[in-house]
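[Automated response] Your request has been received and processed.

Submitted sequence:
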Amino acid sequence: MRRTRASRLHAAGPLLALLLVGIANLSCGKDAALLKPTPAAIGSSIPLGGPPTSSGLDFIPTEAVVTIAPGAVLEDFLSANKLEVVSTLAIPATGFGPAEVYHLVRSTQNKAIDLEKLSLDGRASSASRHNRVWMPEDDRGGLSFDDDDTWRLDGDYLSQPAIPKVKIPEARAITEGTGEIIAILDTGIDAQHPLFVSNSAQFKLTLNYTVWPPAPGVSESGNGVDEDQDGVADDGVGHGTHVAGIAFTGARKAAFLICKVLDDEGRGTAFGLAKAVKAAADYGAHVINLSLGLHVDDRMIKHIAQHCADKGIAVVASAGNRATNALQYPAAYEGVISVAAVDVQDVKPAFASFGTTVDIAAPGVDIVSPIPSYFGANKYAIASGSSMAAPFVSAAIALNHARWTATMRPIEAAAGVLSGAVDITAQNPVIPGQLGSGRVDFLRPLQITE
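Generated structure:
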């Protein structure tokens, strides 16, 4: 048996029911206006599109995430350690632990924070680095065409081999996901791409919702040009557009909640991600797609992931592209469905991560999906990576939940998708048991009649 989480997801069996509900116009607040891309790094003081605080660091040295001990005075803690609060996030009690109020704090002197000192301060019950969130490394197409020539502007979106491979047409003949809400937490999207515009009657895409307020004088271009001269072309919304297009391939009548948590260059922060996950959960998302990751374990992200699991929300995350069994978070957490990439022959490509924490595999090689208009009008691109695999699984879960809405929660619909996966052990004999339950199949979970 694999990890506890997988067995828990497999435990629920679907019963026959079908509930069709109307699709609402969406925003990350039900009565909020659509928001434009923000100029401040999500959950951080770092400008979007600006240079990293320190090259190669997986955390922001001048910031930390703390919780305050019972009875302690936050202001005293801040004053003693020369800190200021940047933002606050309350997460309810979960299977992970008690309710916590997380404070993102920043040095008032713009100096690296001594985390050991904070940990020893009796007024803090916990203190940890403010970790960075990244677009999965080596997503083929994960940065921008201008940056390293990884976008291939080509391909037939509707006739690509991955679609019949996972039986999307047969599944969509049963349900197309009406009433489902899939949250895509990524770079944001180009909502003006003709694919999205022409299908606006079925769903409403929110434009680049973010959890962070604007900062004067800084803006994202989203034009594929390295305007800040830091050596990385400003991708803007390319990655998120491609990911959202894949999810839309499988769930044509689901509603999509687009939350921008990665900046022009595919960087975000743990606090921004946690706030966006909480916002999506509070809104009522059934499935949350995270084609992104952290290289390190993060207490706050683990807590919010468990919060979603407790609410019955299916959180789907990419397993990574490091060609090893090295853990990527949040995919490795209990309650999160970890997705590895395979090719159209169900063989793990050289770049794909694997391991015992992977739950399922999905097509992630040469996937065709929309690309933003700064590459040209009505363009599609071919890209590869676990980022492309995850939204296939998110869409499959949404369809399964739409099919059995009256009798199961999304996380139980996810269990059905895992149970219905196609065994691909024979195609991957070198790594048996390390690609989860197999390759996703959209149709099998929908055909259960007991």
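Summary generated for your ticket: Residues 1-8, 10-55, 140-149, 207-221 have pLDDT under 50 and may be disordered. The chain has two domains: 4-41+135-447, 59-133.
If you did not submit this request, please reply to this message.
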